[in-house]
Amino acid sequence: MNKKIVFTGMGVISSIGIGENAFAGSLETGQCGIKEISIFDVPEGMCKYACEIDNFDPEQILKTKKIKYFDRSTLLALSTIQLSLENASLKENMHDLEKFGVILGTAFGSLWSIDNFGKTMISQGPNKVNPMDFLNTVINSPTSEVNIHNNIMGLSSTISTGFSASLDAIGYAKTLMEYGMADIVAVGGCEELSLPLLVGFEKLNLLSSTGMCTPFDMSKNGVSLGEGCAIFIMETYEHAKQRNARIIASLQGYGTAFDPYGQIQYNPEAEGAVAAMENALQDAGLSSPSDIDYVSASANGNIRGDKMEMAALEKIFSGMPDKVYTGSIKSMIGECYGASGAMQIASTLCAMKYNFIPPNINYSGSHAQFIIPGEAVRKPVTNAMINNFSCNGNNSSIIIKKESIE
After folding, report:
1. End-to-end CA distance of the chain, in Å?
2. Domains assigned to the chain
3. Spatial CB neighbours of 46, under 8 Å, sequence gap ≥ 6
4. I need a labelling partner for 364 at 20 to 30 A (CA). Which of 57, 89, 176, 198 fits?
5. pLDDT over 80 (residue 321)
6. pTM assigned to the model
């Protein structure tokens, strides 16, 4: 039960860079991924800007053209795990690794494929539907294709718990490895931009009118849509040492709590968010919240959500908020829903490796004393907390610790 779980590799595809080096460089310099949406036609009168991934060529990454029937989510997952396996120096046949698993988190997953399948069926009739398109409508399709493409025979799971999905996938992987059901797991989150998402966020009046995301800045309001995929190779410490793997960081704690306050609402008392962070701290065995150097926040520009998270942070870090560096990378990559936690972990691993804390760009600095300003802070990070808090009640936190890179 007390097995040490470590990160030995990561792959990331985002609107600000593809691969660890490009992603880390953009984080450090505060690059913003906002651009005009090009992958689908935006209805008149709706926000035309989002953090869309450009220059994404899955054929180049996967070295194959056999990708005709895969949707964007599946292509992101297949490409990202390829980067992750290479980053972790895993080149042997995955089929030979008996306890190798794949766990991906997603909130909306196959929404775009489901919508397209339904539109074709309604507009052209059932006989015109391509049966291969139906396979993409299943929410676990990206996870399954990752297993098939890499010849992996271990456990395969898709976690869909809303915006906290990829952190919950990490928690699930942790439990499985602690109980000896897996020695090594590819785990992360994946989401794509789609027209149904844009329409949904627009109808809920959640989108930024300018497309710019300003987390924690209470003078402005609005969420920027994003997309991305981050997948990590996580192993038991014993397995990692046995294969002489490079160890980047260790997973110290995981906490989750549901807040039944209401649908599409945030509890102003932040009870669920506080409980999730407290559970993560307890699981990590940290004697004090002051051991945390950096908090990668869930804030996405929604004023009610940002206020709730601020209240939660002030309760956890009472008396020392000015000593805790806090920021949201969603100011750069947008809200990536179920993949946001994975993207935040990727940014935190970059922060640990390159000794900087990512900036909270677009922030005026007038409302919160412990939010990182618009420029990166040059500072080593040892212990970091990553938060994902949802307006539908799911709240999860994890704590990771920097390890010696070998």
Report:
1. 25
2. 5-242 (3.40.47.10), 252-402 (3.40.47.10)
3. 198, 199, 202, 207
4. 198
5. no
6. 0.95
